[in-house]
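Model: You mentioned two targets. I'll fold them one after the other.
Researcher: Yes, keep them separate.
Model: Target one:
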Amino acid sequence: DDLRAQVEPMMELVQALGLSGIDKSQVSRICKGLDEVVAAFRNRPLEGRYPYLWLDALYLKVRQNHRIVNQALVIAIGVNELGEREVLGFALGGSETEAFWLEFLRSLVGRGLQGVQLVTSDAHEGLKAAIGQVLSGAAWQRCRVHFMRNLLSHIPRGDQSMVAAALRTIFAQPHQEAARRQLGAVYAAMATRWPKAADVLLAAENDLLAYMLFPQEHWKRIYSNNVLERLNKEVKRRTNVVGVFPDEPSVIRLVGAVLQEQADEWQIVKRYFSLASMRKLYEPQPLVMAETLPFTLAPVH
């Protein structure tokens, strides 16, 4: 029974990787081979500069000491100086504590991560603190999608569409100075009707508009964690086949194989950012200033 309990979850992992028709005596050898491949991928040196970095976490169910617990799987994606996406690393821990994020980011730096100019993530306090300590020279961009959800939770449902439209006018501006002026106008229009939401907006100003100091061609892909959210969905699709993992090594084995598969696909697809736009990142162009349009919210009827 003990042997069966160990082998059957491994068979589920093998099936999750798209393999079938393999008898149980081969499973351990397959897993050992996978462990070696994943370890090489996970610990490979990071060469060159990675100006953009995205960080996020998802939770998986893992058996520990005869109990089923949720564990945090954190993933880092970067774009190198050639404009190509890479899966830089991943780790598994009990929760998204500052200490866990510190250890993860330091491991990336230890493998060669350098040249980070902008980090995009959600506003998890432990993650923010770790970024400040390990990547102190980088700007931080709060994921705009997560922020919008958070702010709209302070708005009555019937007014959410109007407020969302008002917020979008901030991000439609041609440069950061214009966006700041527009944000001030939106804040003033919101303050008397939804003061809590207005304060949330004003407090997040610097973190929301950090991406506007980078080449405009990159804005749509650096203001949110969408690139990592899509990868997380693929990881969840594959891990849902297993359901509950028998132990932590089995998580690393399957997730590592999925992430390496994605990394291989990215090597043969079009660059995430063009070489011409990446040159602008390292040779900034002068801004062409433009005036903002006056803004008011519709009156209450």
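Model: Target two:
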Amino acid sequence: MRVRQPLISKEIVSSLIKWKKELAVNGHSAWVKVPDVRKMGRRHVHKCVRQNRITHLLSDGEYRAYQVLVWRPNVLAVYEQVPIHLPLSLSVARDLNVVHHRNYKTNEAYVVTTDFVVKEVDVKTGEIISTAYSFKYWDQYYVIDNAGRVSLKKGRTLQKLKIERECWRRKNTKYKLISELDATKAKCWNLDWFSQEWGIQIDRAIKVKFSELFLESWYSHPLSIIQDHIDFACKKLSYSKCQGVTLFKLAALEQILPIDLSEKLKLYYPVKLLDQEGN
């Protein structure tokens, strides 16, 4: 039995025309902005220093996911609340025989959006690629049965994900799920701390040399606090403590220093390093 699909209203067409004009003038514009959301919960109108623009992030989880994505060294841009071409998503919904996103009272179609589209350089090939990401909290995606097996939840959330995934497949774009397990509070706190130094111009060779000395100190005294390793490197390089802290934050932010960010860091805490596999 074929399900009934929603209709395209004049209002949604007008909104799309307005959005495209805004896009042409200002570059990326989030389809859903913080003032548009009426549901309860925390929202973030965030000035991204790396992209030098205002971003609209619709939950704490989205904010943390955005920070994790935008500070990857190979990332060129992160676009949030990206709309999918409405005729495409309606076509996909018909082919999957799944009800398209809609206002269930009026049966008017909503525009399908993806939380993030990331433009990045493939580190293996040097090719510029795009990847679409949908953020949801883990228990919105998955369920654990009595035997401990993990599977995707059934129901309306999964139906919407299927539409979204298939739209990106037809656009030849990778599509991935991201949750709070990929973007923890601790990792985001560390990135926010490091990014306070963003924009300070320091030659990469200096950051590499600092990192080598920091690691030399760490391998000799792995239980020492971060400040001790910074002081060791600064003494060798004749830098001040303040310069050392800046170098540490920038080297960690740019992943020159292979720091484990799974726990909240402070200068008077010890620090763990990632292994060669990045774990």
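Researcher: Noted. Anything on target two?
Model: The two ends are 48 Å apart (CA to CA).
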